[in-house]
Design a protein that fits this description.
The chain is of the alpha/beta class. Helix content is about 35%, strand content about 25%. It contains 6 helices and 9 strands. The strands form 2 sheets. A 6-stranded mixed beta sheet has the order 1-2-3-4-8-9. It has a 3-stranded antiparallel beta sheet with strand order 5-6-7, with no helix packed on it. Helix 5 packs across helix 6 (about 250-260). The protein starts with a strand and ends with a helix.
Length: about 260
């Protein structure tokens, strides 16, 4: 079972792919789920992004995996993508909904954004391994060839049981002469730390209001200590009870010094 980081998704098919990844992938692979970011682009504008899964493979690199639950997808003659909604019982197409951004284009954009982020944080001039994207259709099958996207970029329902092999093949198809040895298990863990934002912290800082409240608490504690001390001196026998650090031992020392004097 691989190391799986990040939160689970509310989407049915994303949860199914996460379950399959947990069952199928080797133990030394790392899966980061449901990554969202808002980063400044080269043009100086902050842009949002979201990725379903990032799979980090020691000895190979990083695979971006986008999951689409659509059963049927069509690309029109003008290049626009449509998601087909079908009748639950008859499976007849009820309507076609245009897709704002083609899934492969979305996955490709996310791949380059995350590769650049990793390079900036490592820091390296080039990503230390291969990186690839895949779009998974766990509810559909591919019926026609794509002239723009290599078969390694698409995972349909028949190949959902072969996720490890398909991810590995997608990365190997992108090696470009990259050194496999550069993407070590240590580098994979560092990249996972970057993508989980695990170094982020919010530290407390006292304000004037906090100082006034602390002063009031200290003053109250001092009055309580004084009352206990007065009881210790004026009463022949007294029990002083309080939590650790409340000053019980200090009062006992003062009483002892007074008796010695």
């Amino acid at each position: 079972m691989p190391k799986i980081l990040g939160t689970n998704s509310a989407d049915r098919w994303e949860r199914e792919i996460r379950r399959q990844l947990a069952v199928q992938l080797p133990h030394d692979w790392i899966v980061v789920c449901n990554i969202a970011w808002a980063l400044r682009s080269d043009g100086g504008v902050v842009k949002d992004g979201q990725c379903d899964f990032v799979v980090l493979v020691p000895g190979l690199g990083m695979a971006i995996l986008e999951v689409k639950g659509s059963r049927s997808v069509r690309v029109g003659e003008d290049g626009k993508w449509f998601r087909r909604e079908e009748h639950l019982r008859t499976r007849e197409v009820v309507r076609e909904v245009p897709i704002d951004e083609p899934p492969p284009e979305q996955a490709c954009r996310n791949m380059h954004s995350l590769a650049r982020l990793a390079c900036e944080r490592l820091p390296r001039s080039a990503f230390p391994g291969a990186y690839a994207f895949l779009v998974a259709y766990p509810n559909g099958v591919v019926e026609g060839p794509s002239t723009l996207y290599d078969p390694s970029t698409i995972i349909a329902k028949p190949d959902i049981s072969k996720l490890a092999r398909r991810i590995k093949e997608a990365l190997e198809a992108r090696m470009h002469g990259s050194s496999r040895q550069d993407f070590t298990a240590e580098v994979a863990s560092r990249v996972a730390q970057i993508f989980t934002n695990s170094t982020f912290r919010v530290a407390g800082r006292d304000t004037p209001l906090d100082a006034r409240e602390d002063g009031a608490a200290i003053d109250e504690l001092t009055r309580q200590q004084f009352a206990a001390l007065r009881g210790a001196f004026e009463l022949p026998r007294v029990a002083i009870v309080g939590p650790a650090g409340s000053g019980k031992t200090l009062l006992a020392m003062w009483k002892l010094e007074a008796l010695v004097e």
